[in-house]
Amino acid sequence: MPSQTQSLNCPNCGGPVRVEHRSVRMVACGYCAGLLEVVPDGVRMAGTAARLVPLPTQFRVGQTGTIRGRPFHVLGRVRYAYDEGVWDEWYLALDDGQAAWLEEDDGEYILARPEELQGVVPGFDQLRIGVRLTVNGYSLMVTERCRARVAGAEGQLFSRALLNRPVNFVEGNAGGRIAYLEFSDDGVEFGIGEPLDRSDVRVEA
Amino acid sequence: MLLRSLNCPNCGGRARLLRGEQTAACLHCGSEVKLSQAYLEEQARARRFPTRTFVRLGMKADWQGAQYEVVGRQVFQDPEDATSTWEEWVLVSETGEVLFLEFDEGKWKLSKSFTPQQTPSPDQLRNAPPGRVVNFGDTHAMVTESGAALIVHVEGELPWLVRPGQATGYVDALRAGEFFCVEWTEDAIECYRGHFVDQRQLCTLFGQKEALIALDRQQLSHQSRRRFGAVCIAAGVLALCCWIYSFGGGQVVEGGMGNTPLAGVTDEGVRFGPVELRARDRVHRLEIQGKMSDDSNWVAAVLEDAEEQELVSADRDMWDEHGVDSDGAWHESDLSASHDFVLRKPGQYYVRLYAEPEPGRTPSLGTSGSFVLREGVLNGTWLGIYGFLALVIGTCFLLSGSPQTVQKFQESMASSDD
Fold it and tell me: In terms of CB atoms within 10 Å, which of A12, A49, B28, B220 comes out highest?
């Protein structure tokens, strides 16, 4: 559900681009594959978005549907690559005006919402598998860590999804919920997510 | 590169690969399609690790309303035992959902990734011998196996990067038929849950109608074998019971008993009778019994007709011995014999008892011989043979109709050997 809609033009090709949510920071032009950064007075060229190799999925940019009965609208997607493969993060605008991302990794879905990180967390290198820590009140154990890079993006994005931008991820189990720490040149970002069953997600054709 | 996606770069048609060849020929335009080194290596490994199952890359499967395709296969090996290998097929749905179909020691397991309420820590996983409980927070399971798995072969188009030579730690656990597996490396702990699938569920999964029909036939055949085996065993038990009963079976014929001291028996014997035998075509038995102590005599009973014609006889060198040795007192004897015959002609018959002492000895006063004539005797010897054969045949059929029972028995024997 767009909370705001702003129609702009790509400075590279002049094609129309839309900004539909206040948290959108970048837009991939659907015509020239230019990657545009959202600035106060419009958009400016920031780089090139790589074309994404299609993988089996039921989502696409612009798609609407429901998650556990709540409507959503797919704004964009970032694909991350790491040593053992790739995963996609679909950026969603939810009906309450909030933004979330839906991680799709090997067919598993996790719906995550960003939270402002409170306090200080150990560095990426200290967060080995099995390490226990408390972040934003969530007690978690590190279950996965990887050094990734942005492999491509499309649509409207919340993060600075510049091609090949390195991002280190740490994932932990917080009582059945999944906590994320994302280490990049922008600092550390935190999010908390919930695993979804396939039956939780309904997409409209 | 997967064989099914081996397309000609010239016309896009399907290319055909002959075993052992370094190039493939396009079936449509005849162009030579060069194969990548990675593909050739994959083919070489595939020959080293051929599948033991009917599953093949590209096969379609229906699971819970979604269609999946078999996209890849991984073969694992126990790093400490190169002969211990198992394989895992990777199935991906049209919407990207991933299922794992594992074949290990003749059993199939279907599983998928899940996020438990509590992920076991690496320390817990490293110290999880069989029998220990793994806690997943909202559920727990008992460890059945733990160790390391070395990936020795990968083929197809897996959704992630896997290289032969990679090793992962694993813990397998069970809870009420549900199967759990935790795999871990330096960078990730992954949890999977699923269940065992039998041959029928597997054929249904892959829509193997012919295999299902064959399975039905096989089950019918097994059922028939089990039924036949059960009937044979029941008949065998009955025959053996009759055989046991036949030791004292039949009824004594009226007047069909006689007893005489052996000391008074002359060369002509002692004649008893007449005895009226009426039961035509029934098995009769002529039994002789000796009564003696520290003595030895040949005793015989002969059935004769009215013309003193010998018809059947039963005889035995009977003896009875006592003694004392280092183990104490002992007593051994052989004092009975019998002969079964079928009465063809009812009428009056006689029994003549003969006796002859061991050369140089005379029968003592208490030594006597007796006979008994019985009718309606079961033919015990053949019943015993038939009963035993029926038991053996029945057991064979019962076992051949219960392959799972045999397998469980072999597994339990193997585990007890371990």
Answer: A49
